[in-house]
Amino acid sequence: MQAPVTSRNTTKAPIGLVILLTGLVMVGQMSTSMYLPSLPSLADDLDVEPSGIKLTMTVFLSSFAMAQLFFGPLSDRIGRRPALFLGLATYVVGTVGCALAPDLISLIVGRFVQGFGACSGPAIARATVRDRYERSEGARILAYIGMAMAVGPAVGPILGGLLQVHFGWRANFVALIIFGVVVWAAAARGLSESLAKPDPNAINPARLARNYMALLSHRVFIGNMLVTAFIFGGMFTYATAVPFVLIEQLGMSPDLFGTVFIFTVTGSVTGSTIASRTAISVRGEVMTAIGAATSLAGGALMLAFTLAGLVTPVTIVGSMMLFMAGFGMAAPNALAGAMAPFPMMAGAASAMIGFAQMGMAGLGSMAIAVFYDGTAVPMAAIVFSMGALSALSYVLVIRTRTAAT
After folding, report:
1. What number of CA atoms fall less than 13 Å from residue 138's CA on the CB side?
2. pLDDT tens-digit profile of 4-32?
3. Which of 26, 162, 190, 362 reaches 20 to 30 Å from 390, CA-CA?
4. Which domains are present in the chain?
């Protein structure tokens, strides 16, 4: 194993590191996207209402969010690598439980354990970028990771749909077990420790409280965190509801359903490409604003089409493409902007961002479980609301603070 990095680089990151960090982030992505085509079938197979099956997404996202607050500070205390390997081992155990689950309660427990371990991937990946690179290069790396991450929501449902049609829903979790083991092995071989000096008090309760209070009292941190959190909420609201809209309401087959994510991924890749190519020439705050406004526009289009009765794959997926383009532009710049002021507690900052993102994703998923009425209206209304709140977070928090300074 290489020695820990002792200073942050101004040079470009090697492609191998970017690929590895992307794999870590995709653990959570694949765990939410692969089983989407199986949601209606799961309800039938386990003999439960669709609202009960939607809770398996909500529980995963909630566990994923809460565990961020554990793994981030833990990585500041014991190092990035040990915290990561503990998390990935937990993830594999939880995924085995999901694959063997005989009923809904067992599946929910498995998803909770799976989500708790999966969060270690993005928490450690973000902290590693903050350890190694300055803000502009960090934003560029996060943009490339964002582009590659888009493969997860595209490939996951396609693969999941094929596995569902040919082998059933349990095959999705078997595939995730294999993916988790492969990522663990790749990290063990290719990820060196990036934390130069562990903080022995990082998980001390009083110290944790002070660190989180410092983060939550920092206006730039809060604004950037909220911009990404609300967009995440819109993304996972869509991911939870769209299988029922397209498969049950519009009659699309599970394997064909998986292919529609290619189009939303195109939006995300487009936004991430713009973000990466403008990372040096355009201020991060400006690109964050453009991204939030674009997501708001996508949510507004979806709601307008739905209220007008124009519910088709083209109107739903096309609107979400625009929403995701906003995500691709806003997320890397907002993440880099939020973490830049906190070099000495990158793990805690990464954890708080992840908690907010996945917490809002869980709330969006829960809202769909509560308000879904067999139509696309609840989904469109919540996606629009999340886009509006993201834009307001920029206007009321980031822009106000920037104008004041």
Report:
1. 26
2. 544 455 556 677 788 888 888 888 888 88
3. 26
4. 15-194+202-404 (1.20.1250.20)
